[in-house]
Enoyl-CoA delta isomerase 1, mitochondrial (Columba livia), 332 residues
Amino acid sequence: MFPVSPNYGSGCPCFPTPCAQAVLGSTSTPVPCPALPACVPPGVLPLSRRPPAWGRAARQPPGLPLALARAFSNNKILVELDESSGVATMKFKSPPVNSLSLDFLTEFCISLEKLENNRACRGVILTSAIPKIFSSGLDITEMCGKSTEHYAEFWRAVQEMWLRVYGCNMVMIAAVNGSSPAGGCLIALSCDYRIMVDNPKFSIGLNETQLGIVAPFWFKDTFVNVVGQRIAERSLQLGALHPAPEALKLGVVDELVPEEKLQERAAAVMAQWLALPDHARQITKSMMRKTVLDRLISHREEDIQHFISFTSKESIQKSLRMYMEMLRKKSG
Ligand SMILES: CC/C=C\C/C=C\CCCC/C=C/C(=O)SCCNC(=O)CCNC(=O)[C@H](O)C(C)(C)COP(=O)(O)OP(=O)(O)OC[C@H]1O[C@@H](n2cnc3c(N)ncnc32)[C@H](O)[C@@H]1OP(=O)(O)O
């Protein structure tokens, strides 16, 4: 099996099965996938790939089976698309706690890409099918006792997930129906709007320091862009998990609703956002987020190396093992 072009990634339509042009021949001259000229930075869809669909959902592209357009589910995420509104719901259903494993992240990126490539879809609501948990964040077992190759693959998938959500042209709304620490919080922060269930037992925040690890710069940038420097600085240093009412006060989430109203409210907010002309909203979003996205895109490999050397340290491994042990004791 030949290696694939360094440009190859889930931004290519042929992902995850590389087409002939994406595969490097024995000359090992990088030959990018033919779709790549259209893909500006890896992981971020260019505006030109999504035709404006203001005012109505665009027609289903020919050749795509109708059933696929309406609902698909591989394993860990249930995706439903309402073609009349142009709104899809991605429901996380990976028991026990929707942790972001490599498999989850891969399925997430493929599902989101399918929606991005479907002209009938203009907005996505992210929510959970697991009671009381939105997502427990990165799967800690993926960062414990694994090879450097595994850490690299895992971290690339985490980066890809963030680049796709934060750089997404569609309207992204997080309907946070449970606790959402660390990576779970990052997913919500990367959306355009966050609605959380009004229950003080559910908390949200970037609690990495509590695990003895450090939120990477792009987690921090995303947080700062939502809540501002001062709140982010205090919350990040303390590794704070904010109960829903406090999260609202700090601006971590935009509104709280009773659990039974969450999906209805998310649909109403989505309709407001979709009432704007797509091209104007998309260009504005891209303008607001470009600097932060570009920072990771231009330092992606360095960030992976940093993750590997940080995670491989015995002191970090020890902290993660102790944290997992604490979780196990608590649950068992
Ligand atoms: C400069 C620095 C540059 C680079 C830095 C490099 C690296 C560091 C960056 C890494 C960024 C990390 C981001 C993260 O997301 S780390 C994960 C953080 N997550 C958490 O802290 C959440 C932990 N979980 C909980 O608090 C609770 O489980 C939760 C979600 C509130 C649910 O509670 P409950 O319903 O009571 O469920 P249990 O606690 O009983 O859990 C059930 C079961 O799931 C296991 N589990 C929970 N969370 C995780 C997880 N994140 N990963 C893996 N496994 C998890 C838990 O152990 C239980 O397992 P058991 O076998 O006992 O049933």
